[in-house]
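mind reviewing this stuff:

——
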Amino acid sequence: MAAHDEFVFFGCYTGETGGRGEGIVLARRDPATGALSRLGVAARTPSPSFVIQHPALPVIYAVNELTAGTVSAFALGDDASLTPLAVRATGGADPCHLAVAPGGTHLLVANYSSGSVAVFPLDVDGVPGERSDLLTLTGSGPVTDRQEGPHAHMVAPDPHGPDVLVCDLGSDHVWHTRLDRVSGRLTLVGPAVTTDPGTGPRHLLRTADGALLLVGELAGELSWFRRGADGGLAREGREPTSAGKPNQPSEVTTGRDGRFVYVGNRGPDTVGVFAWDGHDAVPVAEVATGGEWPRHLALLSDHLYVANERSHTVTIFRVDPDSGIPVAPGESVTVNSPTCILRARVRDEIA
């Protein structure tokens, strides 16, 4: 590869869950133009719907969103090849998100349908061992067809400590849990956030100024919270993520300077753009994605990539650095049933 090129992985749904994908797809990215060149399937693994990289090692992890859920680990080569390392059962159904704890000691996995969080110890090479814990959540909400029980949708470790936040779409809570790095046990402390009934917490974003931004999939809104004098998180505001209805917002992301926040809107098939000033998220624009069902977003330098799950495309936008608004999309690339976008860091990029 040329010295200036980058690699990007795409997770997807495969035939096991009604998708058309083949596994983890690899593409080359030109950082100057944002263009993507598909290189092929890097790993054939069932429904790798969310994909991440170890923060300090050339290891890639993917959930396998199946009824009997698993998580797969791969060694990342300098040419972005993937070599299988391990497959572990998550102890739950339909794992949809995962994260590595600070220090790289453990892998945490959110089992959506069974409403639980699995914990796996990681060895010095980043390989997951046998599951060390499985924390099952409780609760339900008023949207009977979506909130009949707990649905863990995201695990978000605190980058500076043992605390882990868990977005629970089913119970309308963001749970505060704590990971013991010695035993690998995850303890439920209590609710960090209790949202309005029927909100459906899906994904969250911590801002550099200490706020927490939360996407409510069922309410179709972005809300934000900040710690008060009592140490609890209090809501400071909220905004609809789209003018269109119905809407099931998906991912929330921001750029390096944190001035703008982006939310994918499934249904309206748009990206909502918000200006963030540290106190309020002010709607700036709503931009059509050029595809259907934007499941995931990734902002890489000056380009925004949108995974349109149902139109089997990834759309590329250039983001105006002053307004933060994605400019009308150029060419899109074909990726079957895309659900996640990950910019890979090969060995010479890892600190």
Remarks:
- Residues 17 and 47 are 7 Å apart (CA to CA).
